[in-house]
Amino acid sequence: MSGEDFDIKKTESVRSPLLETHEEKGIKRLLFFEEVKKQLWLAGPLIAVNVLQYCLQVISIMFVGHLGELALSGASMATSFATVTGFSLLMGMGSALDTLCGQSYGAKQYHMLGIHMQRAMLILSLVSIPLAVIWAYTGPILLLVGQDPDISAEAGLYAQYMIPSLFAYGLLQCHVRFLQTQNIVIPMMISSGLTTLLHILVCWILVFKSGLGSRGAALANSISYWINVALLALYVNFSPAFKKTWTGFSKEALHDVLNFIRLAIPSAVMVCLEMWSFEFMVLLSGLLPNPKLETSVLSISLNTSALLWMVPLGLSGAVSTRVSNELGAGRPGTARLAVQVVLFLAITEGLFISLTMILVRHFWGYAYSNEEEVVSYLTTMMPVLATSLFLDGIQCVLSGTARGCGWQKIGAFVNLGAYYLVGIPCAVLLAFVLHLGGEGLWLGIICALIVQVTSLLIITLSTNWDQEAKKASDRVYDSTIPIDITS
């Protein structure tokens, strides 16, 4: 039963309130569980896709780890630098398609999905050129900001061999959003799985058999990202599922570029401001007393957080798709229900993961280190980490709602205030003034998350969903190109 059916029932209930109130409750319950099924069907494969894509970098680092400490340090630093200066920016810009493709699909303007994707592919490829130049000078840049000369040189070499992956990653983000907004997620999971399996083989050949060493791992990243893009591109081109949404390359993708950029820039800012703040915490940990211990524990905490974050990230993708589709289709009631359902799922998942982390806090450290000092420190950090993950899960799905509605500009301002006016100053105060060390840095992140969650929750709860559906309709039809022009 659709949201429109529910609105009809609600109107009819005026005539016989006692009888219809009971029926209305049953309808609400049915709609709620139908929405739960839809979101879990979307989120499950998306979680798998996120984990598998995340594993590409991790597998490369694991192979490099067998080459020695310097190679590992250089590869880790290069990966962190690449995330901050390249991947996070492209991921953010690509998320503009969550709004554009999702709402167009809901409005049944199917031919526009291909146009939006081509436009995004063009812009992200152009943006990748200056980013590639930055990556080419990774070594000198790291040296300039005071990093160790040997590690900087090693990281610079690793980043140079990763440059081809930059262009592939941008195209991959476009294809993922194109498929996701059409509720087609299983093929993405299959392609990511195949890519990850092949990546292990490619890494082994290039790192150990070709004599390239750590450069081979970086090159393996590039090859694997291009394999994933090729698999999805072939699927889009040859599958009959896309005969309406992909009609081939069109010069119309060159039109209305500014409108895409107006949404892509705040989308990128929204993502980058959050991701950069976590990287900033790692840099601050190096300034603490006993920096080796602090950096090790914070790195383990970030690693754990990043892996577990893939679950709410999948839910975020699911609600972004559901909200954008329903607003585009002119069903504000169902869009509101989708937000209610995802908040229920995020809170349930967050409580489960947080409680599990607290229960295993005495043992988790041994998965990363045999040093008792590290394990003991991590034991005290786990409740703090569990709290941050719970809050991060809620903000993640609220951010997905924001993308589905097209609120990226609002989200960018919220993230700026939460992380850079509250989070980082609190982290500095707690870690360096109150001498709470790495725990203080993470408590600063929690302060930022509280502000972020509260702000996004207030915005979401005060939303006029009928008005949002009207805005979605205006956005879709203002950018729509007649079918005969695109053909």
UniProtKB/TrEMBL annotation:
Regions crossing the membrane: 40-65, 77-100, 121-143, 155-172, 184-207, 219-238, 259-278, 298-320, 341-364, 376-398, 410-434, 440-461
GO biological process: xenobiotic detoxification by transmembrane export across the plasma membrane
Record's subcellular location: Membrane
UniProt main location, coarse: membrane
Keywords from the UniProt entry: Membrane, Transmembrane, Transmembrane helix
Signal peptide as annotated in the record: none
InterPro entries the record matches: MATE_euk, MATE_fam
UniProt superkingdom: Eukaryota
A molecular function (GO) term: xenobiotic transmembrane transporter activity
The family this protein is said to belong to: Belongs to the multi antimicrobial extrusion (MATE) (TC 2.A.66.1) family.
Protein name per the record: Protein DETOXIFICATION
